[in-house]
Amino acid sequence: MYKRKLSCLIMMLVVVAWLFTPGMGAAENNGADIEKIQPPERFDAGEIDYVEEAKENFAIIGPLDAVYDEHVVINDQSCPLADFADMGGTSVGDFVGAKANDDGEVVELEKLDPKTFERR
User: Fold this and answer.
1) Cα separations in angstroms, 115 against 51, 58, 62, 119
2) Rg (alpha carbons) of the chain, rounded to whole number
3) Model pTM?
4) pLDDT of 55 higher than 90
5) Which domains does the chain have, with CATH numbers?
6) Average pLDDT of the chain, as a whole number
7) Using CA atoms, how far apart are residues 71 and 81, in angstroms rounded to an integer?
8) Which of 1, 80, 94, 98 sees the fewest Cβ atoms within 10 Å?
9) d(CA 108, CA 112)
10) Is beta strand 95-100 parallel, antiparallel or unpaired with respect to 77-86?
């Protein structure tokens, strides 16, 4: 019993010595302080005007009314198709934005979310 108490006492002294010995224990942090986490800046999704951005990127925006060999009808307007126009997986009835080349021919159609363009 005496040996057990003595070994527990020695073990406790070793642990205490280890904790208070510089460079070995948790008592020294050498500038490893925990920095405060700064909260992110406030973000307001309303700051982005998707409608204005789309108007700048697309020649015409609206529902795809019809697709023909040489032209498409978007928002009741007939638009000629370029030779290698990218239809972007769109189909009749989709709300689309059309990019045009310098000749006014549709070169690309992109499906858009019609909810973004609803009147507020």
Assistant:
1) 11, 17, 12, 9
2) 35
3) 0.56
4) no
5) 51-117 (2.40.50)
6) 81
7) 5
8) 1
9) 13
10) unpaired
